Automatic annotation (TrEMBL):
Protein family (similarity comment): Belongs to the ABC-4 integral membrane protein family.
Native species: Pontibacter aquaedesilientis
InterPro entries: ABC3_permease_C, MacB_PCD, Macrolide_Exporter_MacB
Membrane-topology annotation of the record: Multi-pass membrane protein
Keywords, sorted A to Z: Cell membrane, Membrane, Transmembrane, Transmembrane helix
One Pfam family per UniProt: MacB_PCD
Chief localisation class: membrane
PANTHER family, sorted: ABC TRANSPORTER PERMEASE YTRF, MEMBRANE COMPONENT OF TRANSPORTER-RELATED
MacB-like periplasmic core domain sequence ranges: 21-221
TM spans (from-to): 21-42, 285-309, 338-365, 377-397
Localisation per UniProt entry: Cell membrane
Protein name in the entry: ABC transporter permease
Domain ABC3 transporter permease C-terminal: 293-407
């Protein structure tokens, strides 16, 4: 009996026990579904969050005053307080770095602010930020309508503003906000631009609840307790592969501007805009390992169930094995038939499990954000390979047992 004939005989045996084949295949499909589903969900969530974080830019970095984490072991020790980045320091840094990069300066003016129009007002959840001419492009923001700030407005600090989409929908639901006026922080501002809706799959509103004013205007607004502003610096370059080099250059320039002494730690911190993506990649790696372990344990249980069912099949077909051996079938051919049956059942169940796993994984990922439909071809191939391995491991012992049956004793079996 050739291998092709053995395959045909295995398929006929599968068809003759269709209900058992379906139930056995379901055991395998559940195991594969859990494996592929978890791994697909991880890939889908990562893809969705990658798209969310990509707006931060992979070719830029931020410079801020170093924060004090308060992690000292000595409770009585006074933690070091680093000075704010002053306007003069930020301007000097911008002048020294503007040849090789695009530098934007900004400052947080106020948070939890109420913004009023002539007829309505917002909830106290609006953020007021001040920025220069490069703030909008460096933050990867786009204008839906209107314009940015002119050179005159930036230089003299006029009362103009660019508002987020959520503010526009709240205060001017039926009218064009461009040219209208809003009031906040004791001043009246003319709206010159509206930002595109950003939204967020992470649950925040971001730029949708922000009002941007010229940096000079923000400097003129009195602050509670006469506290000074601290400035944020964002540096963007055109070639992402040069980011590490430019960050090193920026560190040296900023140390000079801040007059940090040689051997002294920096009084500022530099953070890459893609650091969240890097952290996400690390976390997703752990999730994949965990998902693979969970799926492997499920498949282990499925393989035990398949082996049990194959053992039952061997017992029920003992007389058939005896007849085939009496007609000249060798032990190798008997072993091949049962192995092929186990592998075919695993592949059929695995294909169903892969389909269900892809659907389940994308369904879970869609709950986090809109990242598109993902078909993880690597995990599909891994799943099919595992199906073959499970079929061989689960079917070998029953097949070996069947091949060792004595044909005379098998023919007598009732």
């Amino acid at each position: 009996m050739s291998l092709l004939e053995n395959i045909r005989e295995s398929i006929r045996a599968i068809k003759s026990n269709l209900l058992r084949t379906i139930l056995t295949g379901l055991i395998i499909s559940i195991g594969i579904m859990s494996l592929v589903g978890i791994l697909t969900a991880v890939d889908g969530i990562k893809h969705s969050l990658d798209q969310t974080f990509s707006s931060l830019g992979a070719n830029s970095f931020d410079i801020r005053k170093k924060s004090n984490n308060g992690r000292g072991n000595n409770q009585s020790r006074t933690d070091k307080v680093y000075p704010d980045i002053t306007y003069e320091q930020a301007i000097k840094y911008k002048e020294l770095m503007e040849k090789n990069s695009r530098v934007s300066l900004s400052a947080n003016i106020a948070g939890a602010t109420v913004v009023k129009s002539a007829t309505d007002k917002t909830n106290p959840n609006i953020t007021i930020a001040a920025g220069d001419e490069f703030y909008i492009p460096n933050q990867n923001l786009n204008l839906a309508r209107g314009r940015g700030f002119s050179s005159y407005e930036l230089e003299f600090g006029t009362n103009v503003a660019v508002i987020g989409k959520e503010i526009s929908d709240k205060l001017f639901p039926k009218t064009d906000p461009i040219g209208e006026y809003v009031s906040f922080l004791g001043r009246r501002f003319k709206i010159v631009g509206e930002l595109e809706k950003r939204g967020s799959s992470m649950g925040g509103s971001g730029a949708d609840r922000m009002i941007l004013i010229p940096l000079e205007t923000g400097r003129q607004i009195p602050r509670a307790g006469n506290s000074s502003l601290t400035y944020n610096i964002k540096t963007s370059i055109s070639k992402p592969d040069e980011l590490t080099y430019v960050m090193g250059e920026a560190t040296g320039v900023m140390r000079n501007v801040r007059q940090d002494q040689l051997g002294q730690e920096e009084s500022f911190e530099i953070k890459r805009s893609d650091s969240l993506i890097q952290s996400l990649n690390e976390i997703s790696g752990y999730l994949k390992v965990g998902g693979f372990v969970i799926g492997f344990i499920t498949l282990l249980g499925a393989s035990v169930g398949l082996m049990n069912i194959m053992m039952v099949s061997v017992n029920e077909r003992t007389r058939e094995i005896g007849v085939r051996k009496a007609m000249g079938a060798t032990s190798l051919q008997i072993r091949q038939q049962f192995l092929i049956e186990a592998i075919v059942i695993c592949i059929l169940g695995g294909m169903v499990g892969i389909f269900l796993g892809i659907m389940m994984g994308n369904g879970i990922a869609s709950l986090i954000g809109e990242g598109g439909f993902i078909v993880p071809w690597i995990w599909v191939m891994v799943g099919l390979t595992i199906c073959v391995i499970v079929g061989v491991l689960s079917g070998y012992y029953p097949a070996h047992r069947a091949s060792k049956l004595d044909p005379i004793e098998a023919l007598r079996y009732e």
